[in-house]
Design a protein that fits this description.
about 250 residues; mainly alpha; three-stranded mixed sheet; two-stranded antiparallel sheet; about 10% strand; elongated
Length: about 250
């Protein structure tokens, strides 16, 4: 998150209350989303799935049946740190997901396998997201510095360049949404098609776990978009003020 300092005065920098008008709703959504996913994970990590399969066993079942024998499975430390690495075709599961036969472990493993299936199929939005990562890294490091430098020096073009760099992170967050939703849809299809969920109740439980996780990506996108809109508003307000002083 960038600095919230957006102006200067006799006492130095100050915080613009409008920042919170723009960003606070998205921040509250993010807090709710994190609470929701923690709650769902806490609930379904205590409920054994009907097949008694761990995340690793889910992968061992689904990968060959889905023609992804080139994908390897490794462990990764932490909690909810599970991910698919498309550069190396590796699924990395946290200890709880890898080793416990719970609904949460089964759902999370299937979701990450959904990402591997996207990679196998050349899913457009996954390719777009991977392609913009270098620009996002540059934008996240330089965008706010360029923006504030332009704002303080009253160089509107430089400030707009900063906005464009900041926007790369917003685009990344928005592109992530279809990627994650599609991975969850693929996960449910695979779990049902290969008989890893055996009842309507278990299907609802798996869907609840996946939906809770998806909410965090909606919150991240809303937060990134609200921050971007705030800085656009800030620049437009500064430009209007400069014109009025002439």
């Amino acid at each position: 998150m960038p600095s919230d300092f957006v102006g200067t005065g006799a006492a130095g920098f100050y915080i613009d209350p409008l920042y919170f008008v723009f960003v606070l709703p998205a921040m509250l959504l993010a807090f709710y989303a994190q609470s929701r996913v923690r709650s769902a994970y806490g609930k379904w990590s205590r409920v054994r799935n009907s097949r008694g399969v761990t995340g690793v066993q889910v992968a061992q079942t689904l990968l060959p049946r889905e023609n992804m024998t080139n994908v390897r499975v490794e462990g990764t430390p932490g909690e909810l740190s599970d991910h698919y690495d498309p550069s190396k075709n590796i699924l990395r599961f946290s200890p709880a997901v890898a080793n416990q036969p719970t609904i949460a472990a089964m759902s999370i493993a299937a979701h990450e396998i959904g990402h591997a299936a996207q990679d196998r199929d050349g899913y457009l939005w996954l390719r777009v997201r991977g392609g913009i990562v270098p620009f996002v890294q540059i934008g996240s490091q330089l965008g706010y510095l360029v923006f504030f430098a332009g704002l303080m020096a009253q160089l509107e073009g430089l400030a707009w360049l900063g906005i464009l760099l900041i926007a790369s992170g917003t685009i990344f967050a928005l592109v992530t949404l279809p990627v994650e939703l599609d991975a969850s849809n693929r996960a449910m299809r695979m779990l049902e098609q290969h008989n890893l969920v055996t009842s309507a109740e278990e299907k609802r439980a798996a869907r609840d776990m996946l939906n809770a996780a998806a909410l965090t990506y909606f919150a991240a996108a809303a937060q990134a978009l609200s921050v971007l809109l705030y800085y656009v508003m800030l620049l437009m307000r500064s430009s209007a003020s400069s014109r009025n002083r002439r």
